[in-house]
Design brief:
The chain is mainly α. The protein has two helices and no strands.
């Protein structure tokens, strides 16, 4: 092999190894972003489930009736308030 051929083979090999390193780093970055987004999606799904459960709990007729009864009882037990009048 001539010296020129040897240099070309080494340069091509170096370029190929550099390309592999760049592709691996890009792959690692994309995996990191994907896992970060999946964690964020899991958190949002959890919040959605909690909100749906809270909404279902608030729509429950028994709970609504109990809250209404408690509010009426508090209103009936509260002393009547006379409206304040300004200075004459």
């Amino acid at each position: 092999m001539t010296l020129l051929r040897m240099v070309v083979v080494l340069v091509v090999g170096l370029a190929l190894m550099l390309l592999v390193v760049v592709l691996r780093s890009e792959t690692a970055r994309l995996h990191f972003e994907t896992s970060r987004d999946e964690r964020r999606i899991d958190v949002l799904r959890h919040q959605l489930r909690e909100a749906e459960l809270e909404q279902a709990r608030r729509r429950n007729p028994m709970v609504m009736r109990q809250q209404l009864n408690e509010a009426m009882q508090e209103w009936m037990e509260a002393p009547p308030q006379t409206p304040r009048r300004g200075k004459p």
